[in-house]
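Retro notes (design track)

What went well: tokenization of the new backbones is finally stable.
What didn't: we kept losing track of which sequence belonged to which structure.
Fix going forward: every design gets posted as structure first, then sequence, in one message. First example under the new rule, 91 residues:
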């Protein structure tokens, strides 16, 4: 289920980036990265450890985090930002 949570967060970040509100796409990408960091900050320790234990996006050839729909574009960038924030938090 953790991989599905990452996918949902990735699509939410994509929606933020593509939403027709002020600022450039680059500004909205930075906002999405900030949201990713806040999501990680809000995770309980057990949840953060479980999500951090998943394979990195695109590294496993099977499963929902395999190369494919989630690993590219804005969705993939948001998931990578979450995984990077988790790596910093967990160590």
């Amino acid at each position: 289920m953790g991989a599905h949570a990452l996918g949902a967060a990735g699509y939410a970040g994509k929606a933020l980036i593509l939403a027709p509100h002020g600022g450039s796409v680059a500004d909205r990408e930075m906002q999405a990265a900030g949201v990713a960091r806040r999501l990680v900050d809000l995770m309980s320790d057990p949840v953060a450890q479980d999500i951090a234990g998943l394979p990195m996006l695109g590294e496993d050839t099977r499963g929902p985090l395999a190369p494919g729909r989630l690993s590219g574009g804005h969705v993939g960038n948001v998931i990578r930002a979450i995984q990077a924030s988790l790596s910093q938090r967990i160590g």
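Added context from the reviewer: DSSP finds four helices and no strands in the chain.
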